[in-house]
Amino acid sequence: FDVIAGGIKASIFGLLMAGISCSLGLRAKGGAASVGQSATKAAVWTAVCIMIADFLLTWIMFANDAQPVNR
Predict the structure, then answer these.
(1) DSSP symbols for 50-64
(2) Cα dist. 20→4, 37, 42, 48, 63 in Å?
(3) What are phi and psi of 69, to 5 degrees?
(4) What is the largest CA-CA distance in the chain?
(5) Any alpha helices (H) in 1-71, and if so which ranges?
(6) Nearest CA-CA partner of 6 in 54, 56, 66
(7) What's the DSSP call for residue 68?
(8) Which of 2-6, 10-14, 20-24, 46-50 has the lowest mean pLDDT?
(9) Cβ neighbours, 10 Å, residue 35
């Protein structure tokens, strides 16, 4: 299940990255400076969204895998 979960998470991360980058890139106006700012914004937003998505997906996928520790 870990391999499947990893593949699902990687696919979702890729979609997030593509969506955010395209969205901000298509709104860039005003030349190279604006494109640079859009690329920076896209990188920051992508990193933040991937961190949040990773937390949520891990929580959803592995919520039932918690096993008590027997000592």
Answers:
(1) HHHHHHHHHHHHTGG
(2) 24, 14, 6, 11, 28
(3) -90, 125
(4) 64
(5) 2-26, 32-61
(6) 54
(7) P
(8) 2-6
(9) 14
| Structure tokens, 17 | 């990255």
CA end-to-end distance (rounded Å), the chain: 27
CA 23 to chain centre: 14
As to burial, measured by CB atoms within 10 angstroms (0-12 exposed, 13-18 middle, 19+ buried), residue 28 is middle
Which amino acid is located at 22 in the chain? C
Q: What is the pLDDT of residues 16-30, one digit of tens each?
A: 999 999 999 999 898
Collapse the DSSP code of 38 into the 3-class scheme (helix H, G, I; strand E, B; otherwise coil) and give the result: helix
How far is Cα 58 from Cα 7, in angstroms, rounded to an integer? 12
CB–CB of 21/46 below 8 Å? yes
Question: What pTM value is reported for the model?
Answer: 0.77
